[in-house]
Amino acid sequence: MKQELEIEFKNLVTQDEFQQLINHFKITNQHFISQENHYFDTPDFQLKEKGAALRIRQKNQRSVLTLKQPHDDGLLETHAVLTTEQAGQLLNNNGSIPNDMAALLQSLGITSDTLVYFGTLKTDRAEIAYKNGLLVFDHSFYLDIDDYEVEYEVQDAKQGLDNFRQLLKDFQIPARKTDNKIRRFYQQKYHLLSED
Question: What residues contact 124, with CB distance under 8 A and at least 6 apart?
Answer without folding.
Answer: 32, 33, 34, 138, 139, 140
